[in-house]
Structure formats: structure tokens, C-alpha cells
Amino acid sequence: MIKAIIFDISGVIVFNDLENILKKLSDELKIDLDLLIELEKQNHEKLILGKISIKEFCSSIRSRFNLEQDSLTLLLIWERLYADSSKLNNELIEKIKIIKKKFKVGAIANMFDSTAQFHQRQKLFLFFKPFLAISCRVGSTKTDSKMFLRIVSNMQVKENECLFIDDNENNLLDAKKKGMKILLFQDNKKLFKDLRKLKII
pLDDT tens across 123-133, in order? Predict the structure, then answer.
């Protein structure tokens, strides 16, 4: 019996595209996109775990490409590009408001620090508190059992009483191994159909 639902944020609750942000950044700074992507890949795990900040990553960009702009200026450009490309899935959020009347609802995300700060300013995190786990703040990712254990424990439910919804099949497989029920998010229409089958909505 499902008692709690955990949503992934990036790609489900919020639509954004890291590759697109990197492309726009490379265009604006007139730097090589492939080299920028490679630099991000080298730092990706540290960024989502909160071991380095986006400002520190911007400092790496500045050094790697010998840019005139200081790290703060690059950070502001990054934050602007993220804000411009980020879009809330408002249709799903409206459904979640209904779901919360019957089920415990939480959210998890692999997220950079500046992204987390942006969504905190937008009040998105308040919607899911107290059942919220953000990688850069808890020091673990969706492939680490610690993140799931933390949120499931806070919800005071068992793993097999949780439904996890993510747009990444690999993350779903990890959750399934922990005993959770899973749904792959492709679009709202498919998700709402699946949730109706499970009598969630």
C-alpha cells in the first residue's frame, strides 16, 4: 500500500537543461563548448555533492579559458542563464496539491548549490518540506542509499510503502532495489494516467 510519494525535482517538477546552459554560456563567453562540457564533467560530482560551489566552478572556467571577467561576474551570468531556462511544471504542482491531501509527499534532487538557492528563493522547497533532500546540502546523491534512507525515515514509512517518480531510469532502478515502487516520468499526460491506475489521483 502506497503511503508516500517522492518526486525527483529536476526533469519532473522543474524543466531545465544543463547542456543548453553550457551552450549558452560558451556562446556568451566565446569559449569552446566541448572544453566547457569536459570541465563540467570533471567537476560534476563535486558540484552536486556540494564539495565545490558554482562560484568556485566559475573560477575554474575563468582560469581554464583565461577570461577577463571575475568569478562573481561569471556566477551572475550562470544564474541568469539558469533562471531563463528553468520552467516549473505547474500542471504537476497543481496535481500534487491534491495528492498531498491523502499522501505524504516529498522531493529529492541532485542539484548544484546556486540552483538550490534559486529554487529556495522561488519558495519551491517550502512546498515539499519537511520531506526534502537536496544533494548539495545532504552530501549524498540519488544513487546513494543515504538520501533515500533520510527522507523515508523522516516520512516514517517503509521503503515498500513509497512511490518514487523520476525521469531517469537508472535512478529508478536504484530505488526499486531498495524496495520502492517506481514510475518513469515522460510527460504529464502519461504520469497522470499511471497515477490514476494506482488510485493516487
Answer: 999 999 999 99
Q: pTM above the 0.85 mark?
A: yes
Specify whether 63 is located in the same domain as 114: no
User: The CATH number of the domain where 125 resides is what?
Assistant: 3.40.50.1000
Q: What is the pLDDT of residues 12-43, one digit of tens each?
A: 999 999 999 999 999 999 999 999 999 999 99
Specify whether the CB–CB gap between 85 and 21 falls below 8 A.
yes
Structural domain of residue 92, as residue ranges? 4-15+88-197
